[in-house]
Amino acid sequence: MRAVVAVVALVAWLEASVAHADAAAAETVRERFAPPAGFVSDVVAAGSFGAYLQALPLLPPGTPVLTFAGTPAHAPWAQAVVDVSVGARDLQQCADSAIRLRAEWLRSSTSSSTTAMGPVRPVFHATSGDPIPYGRYVAGERAFAQKNRLGWRSGARSGDDDEVWAAWLETVFLYAGSLSLARDTTPVTGPMAAGDLLVLGGSPGHVLVVLDVARAADGREQWLIGQGFMPAQSFHVIGWYAPDGDGALTVPSWKAPFPKTARRRFR
Question: Degrees (nearest 5) of the Cα angle 145, 150, 156?
């Protein structure tokens, strides 16, 4: 019975996920959040991760940020809630939200889904350093904690469908975090771009997602920032923010600035 309930919950979670086709009439991140006066948004390539983020549908204005338990979260900085499910467990927090969005883009991206060797399966790393490949879940394997590492068991349900996808995502959320993102990203040494991250690794750490980058004629930048939070809650947009003269970014949702060295980009 527990297995049946778990399957139903997982499928329900995926049915409430990001679904651009079903939300075609919804206002998107790009539509609601025009760049500040005097700034122009960077052009993003069609099909890119940045374009995917800017096309995310938003819930109606005034929609509250909710925790995984369905209760209102303390999020006075939230300016909009993105229509992405948060699940029913305290798993999809700040780093996990960034991973979730990246994973969903990889899954939906026709440019990265198939090669001559077959489908490209997303892989993220646990804080232990162990990889968690989606391909192993497709093959019927499942990860489990084994001391301070991950072990694998076979014999689970195989296939590439929403149920298996949800099971893999929950495992990634359980074992990954702001520290593990260092293995799945590289430092940004040049200009920031939509889809980049600001990562403060730690326990707790925090992760911000750059949804858009806008520039003024004099070279000044502003970044449109989104985030998940702790406890797990709705991914939300907190608005446009400008880095300071040293390249650090300060936002009201976190106690410390994000230094220039916090800039990361998914591999």
Answer: 80
Quote the CA–CA distance of 68 and 11 in Å, as a whole number: 16
Cis? peptide before 204, omega within 30° of 0: yes
Nearest CA to 208 among 94, 104, 103? 94
Q: How many CA atoms lie within 13 A of 91 on its CB side?
A: 19
**Which pLDDT value is given to residue 82?**
98
3-state secondary structure of 103: helix
Query: By C-alpha distance, which of 91, 98, 234 is closest to 166?
Result: 91
Characterize the bridge pairing of strands 40-41 and 221-227.
Answer: unpaired
Query: How far is 208 from 259, CA to CA, in rounded Å?
Result: 12
Check: CB of residue 221 under 8 Å from CB of residue 240.
no
Buried-state track 220-236, b at ≥16 Cβ within 10 A, e below 16 = ebbbbbbbbbebbbbbb
Q: What are the start-end ranges of the H helices in the chain? A: 2-15, 29-32, 49-54, 94-108, 134-138, 162-175, 181-184
What's the whole-number mean pLDDT along residues 26-42? Answer: 97
User: What mean pLDDT is reported for the chain?
Assistant: 90
Phi, psi (degrees; rounded to nearest 5) at 238: -105, -5
The least confident of 22-26, 76-80, 189-193, 253-257 is 22-26
Please report the pLDDT score of residue 119 as a whole number: 66
Distance between CA 205 and CA 202 in Å, rounded?
4
Task: Give yes or no for a contact between 65 and 81, defined as CB atoms under 8 angstroms apart.
Answer: yes
Would you state the structure tokens that stand for residue 164, as one six-digit string? 């298996």
- Whole-structure pTM value: 0.88
Share of the chain above pLDDT 70, in %: 87
Q: Residue 85 belongs to what H/E stretch? A: none
